């Protein structure tokens, strides 16, 4: 089953001058695949991820995620779709610094409001354990290391059991040890849980070890 199908994606920026940043991209990604999107600075990686994540709706072409056509949905429908299907991990983790790690992880699930607070808390504790953060649940997010914070951000991205996890430079801020830890977590999520990982990276080693590389050059796919 396909986790994502992108057909004829075209994206223009109108300012300062009209400029075609993504030029007719067509590709698909399988469920449980761990894909790295690479390319030189300015090649269009972040722009593409922004489209795939349904955050940017101003494009031509179509995007289907897990059999759902997301192109054409309203902003409210997309917000609900994202909360349920997509987990995000960014270079900077955007945790709420004054909240505990546990609260940070629980928040998206409380927002989704599908499970009881107790169930959510149990799952959050489980995820923090899985990410080797046992015992730190009640620590404030402002008081942990960058590598730990990135793992909390991953736990938060996983709390609603997303089918697709999207990362924009998820290891961009990490040393090699923590980069390896994050890589191993992604690999396990893809290969053992069947979750699909789509991540933009500048790290060629990271990309080479993932299942597949999609390489952009000047807004076109030159390798997939
Ligand atoms: N909001 C915008 N308005 C106009 N041009 C933009 C906008 N955002 C990005 N661009 C341009 O689109 C091109 C692609 O940008 P994008 O950020 O997608 O590249 P990238 O491959 O992710 O780069 P990097 O590796 O540096 O993050 C660049 O030339 C950039 O200057």
Strand pairing plus helix content: what structural class? alpha/beta
Write down the Rg.
17 Å
Give the strand content.
Answer: 25-35%
Adjacency order of strands in the biggest sheet = 6-7-8-3-9-10
* Biggest sheet overview: 6 strands, mixed
Order of helices and strands: EEEHEEHEHHHEHEHEE
CATH architecture tag: 3-Layer(aba) Sandwich
Bound small-molecule species: adenosine-5'-triphosphate
**Quaternary class:** single chain
What form results from the Cα inertia axes? Answer: globular
Whole-number count of domains: 1
Report low-confidence residues grouped into runs of 5 or more.
none
Helix count from the secondary structure assignment:
7
Terminal CA distance reads 18 Å
Family: Belongs to the ABC transporter superfamily. Macrolide exporter (TC 3.A.1.122) family.
Protein name: ABC transporter ATP-binding protein
InterPro entries: AAA+_ATPase, ABC_transporter-like_ATP-bd, ABC_transporter-like_CS, MacB-like_ATP-bd, P-loop_NTPase
GO molecular function: ATP binding; ATP hydrolysis activity; transmembrane transporter activity
Task: Describe it.
There is one protein chain. The chain is of the alpha/beta class and 224 residues long. The chain has a single domain, classed as Rossmann fold (3-Layer(aba) Sandwich), CATH 3.40.50. Helices cover 37% and strands 28% of the residues. The chain contains 7 helices and 10 strands. The strands form 2 sheets. A 6-stranded mixed β-sheet has the order 6-7-8-3-9-10. Strands 2-1-4-5 form a 4-stranded antiparallel β-sheet, with helices on one face. α3 packs parallel to α5. The two termini are 18 Å apart. The mean pLDDT is 94. It binds adenosine-5'-triphosphate.
